[in-house]
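The material for today's practical consists of a large collection of protein records. There is nothing in a record beyond a sequence line and a structure line. Backbone structure tokens are a discrete shorthand for how the chain folds in space. Nothing more is needed to start thinking about how sequence determines fold. As an example, a complete record with its sequence and its structure tokens follows.
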Amino acid sequence: EAMPDVDSWDVKILATDLDSNVIDTGSRGVYTQERVNGLTPAQLKRWFKKGSGDNSGNVKIHPDLQSMISFRQLNLMKDWPMTGPFDMIICRNVVIYFDKPTQTRLFSRFAGALANDGLLFVGHSESLAKVSTDFDLIGKTIYTKAI
């Protein structure tokens, strides 16, 4: 929605998780109404279809949006099947579960996978201070790759 003309952009989203159940749910694109309560009526109308019959109370992601997203299982500490460069990596509320040396390795991997002007988004309880010098803070939880 922030893009002025989404049809002129080549948007591809890679959504990953370690949990195969999360990947299955995302791939199906069907959610309970409660999961989308924070969206505006305009967003709901544009990006979701209301369920009926057995799917009453659920919503399904619009095919135009769903076609932009690939869901893959990924263990952040193992080999990555993707190489980048990525314009943006969003890794929220995951890194806090790793020790500092592991965080350092992970942020280094993120830096290697990001385009030179790429952005890294982390969770509010996460910080790269004393963990990585590969990024510069540009917002509360937004970093840009240091060049």
